[in-house]
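Here is one chain, start to finish.
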Amino acid sequence: MTHHTSTRRRFLQQASGLIAGTVVSNAWSPCLDAADKRAPLVLSCVDGVLMQTKIADCWNATKAVGATGIEASIAPDLSFPRLFHPTRKYSAATAEDLETLKKDAAAAGCKITAFLMATQFDVRGAEEVAWVIKAAQAAQALGVRAIRIDVVKHKSDNSDFLESVTGMLKEVVAKTSDTGVDFGVENHGNTTNDPNFLDALFSGVASTRLGLTLDTGNFYWFGHPLPNVYELFEKYATRVVHTHCKSIGYPADQRNQQRPMGWKYGEYTCPLDQGDIDFRRVIKILRDAGYQNDLCIEDESLDKVPEAKRTATLAKEFDYLKACMADA
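Its structure:
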């Protein structure tokens, strides 16, 4: 996927929206100059991570850590179980539900930057396809640009997994063509951290609307040496539609060599500002490729931090990302 093709597609989508009387929120500019590439990216946080702050509601939690966006986990019934609030239950199931969420997010000065879907295409098949299609329609209504999907094997006997999931994602893309929403396969687990699988999947689906939710820690978790991790960031940069920002701080003698998948992850996962991933370099790679969505923190080390310090830990990570953005 080239940047020219991607931005032209979004321009046409925006023009179509204007003709129909609606504007696709956050549509990319049809022409990105150097200043546009260096414009601040939205800083967001995974809703499940925000829950660990123990602040009463997701909007105040977002403010407390220094973010302005949330990645919202969406369930098969179109509810948002991790958009926490003492008196509200959020959903995208009805027009009224969508309007309530829009108003509350706007009042908080916050935006939903992406949906998170824990899809299991080899388990539920047609049901998952229907769920993703409904989620894309809800995303369009909310002005959400990207949906994180999971493409990971869950069955031991799954020799036709690639062929099967390729067919399902082709159907998803075809049946959501009017939404303008992109799908970001996360590099995740034992399947999509493999570049060979990703390449085959992208080639098989052959759509510019199937991209990557780039998890900055997962290629490293998979065992790729650190120099190779940056090479993969560059390889897939024009495919990135959403991010999960996390890091790992491995011992120096382990960083540049192949490690077993998941090697001592629980011990070495850490906040962004303490890990091996250079986010100045990450942001520069993404900006040079024309990326315009969010930097979404998914710190999986927070359970090692005392509860009373988790908000401050996240706030420090967002300060680090802001500094990286200014320098990149």
